[in-house]
Write a structure and sequence with these properties.
CATH superfamily: Spore Coat Polysaccharide Biosynthesis Protein SpsA, Chain A
Number of strands: 9
Strand content: 15-25%
Number of helices: 8
CATH topology: Spore Coat Polysaccharide Biosynthesis Protein SpsA, Chain A
Length: 246
């Protein structure tokens, strides 16, 4: 199955070449799609240079910074156009370990969504301030409660492997959330569609290079967004076709 790893970037010049090299090295079939939001630090130019030297690297240039949600959605659409069958979403800053990808692919044989989880095997987060860790941990509990028992431990996790068919069935044009909210919404929609979801533990380490794009307003957006999702589900606006699974 053709494997494309989508990496959104905004001012990631310190990390980009390193993360692309690591992703390509871990599996000879991996391809990388860099979705750059017109980074002023030259990340897009670096991506073009990498792509010109290696046909396994692709670049999607976007007009400006619009947030992680729109960047991933654009990346998913482009990965599907390229023929991707297993489509991975991961960060550029090494918080998502590339060495976990082979395990993701193995689990994807029987699941439409594989989710790298920070909370399924205790708390496997390294170098986060306690305040951010508590916000993330209890925010996940809150989201699961509001969304009627969403059966994952890490609803806000952003390291995922999708089957092409799941993304195509999801009506991506209806996904409007960003940040933590985007991650919750995508997993919730997958669950409501009947996708087989498998969480697998990862070691999540805070970035060493560059600057984090996460801030409090993104977390607050997610707290409000889950109620909008629950209402949309009650009104029948979230697809529940149960199109997957044996």
């Amino acid at each position: 199955m053709r494997k494309i790893v989508v990496i959104p970037t905004y001012n990631e010049k310190e990390n980009l070449a390193l993360i692309v090299e690591a992703v390509l090295a871990v599996d000879p079939e991996n391809e990388v799609l860099v979705a750059d939001d017109n980074s002023p630090d030259g990340t897009g130019r670096i991506a073009d240079e990498l792509a010109s030297a290696n046909p396994r690297i692709h670049v999607l240039h976007r007009p400006g910074k619009q947030g992680i949600g729109p960047a991933y959605l654009a990346g998913f659409r482009r990965a599907i156009e390229l023929g991707g069958e297993l489509i991975v979403q991961m960060d550029a800053d090494f918080s998502h370990p590339p060495t976990s990808l082979p395990a993701f692919y193995e689990l994807a044989r029987d699941h439409e969504l594989v989710l790298g989880s920070r909370y399924i095997d205790g708390i496997t987060v390294v170098n986060w301030p306690m305040g951010r860790l508590m916000l993330s941990f209890f925010g996940n509990m809150y989201a699961k409660f509001v969304l009627g028992g969403l059966p994952v431990c890490d609803a806000t996790g952003g390291f995922k492997c999708w089957h092409r068919d799941a993304l195509q069935a999801m009506q991506l044009d209806r996904v409007q959330s960003n940040g933590y909210g985007f991650q919750i919404e995508m997993t919730y929609r997958a669950w409501k569609m009947g996708c087989r979801i498998k969480e697998t533990p990862i070691i999540f380490a805070d970035r060493k290079l560059g600057t984090s794009k996460m801030h409090l307003s993104i977390a607050v957006e997610a707290l409000v967004m889950v109620w909008r999702l629950r209402l949309a589900s009650l009104l029948g606006r979230i697809p529940t076709r149960h199109a997957f699974g044996a």
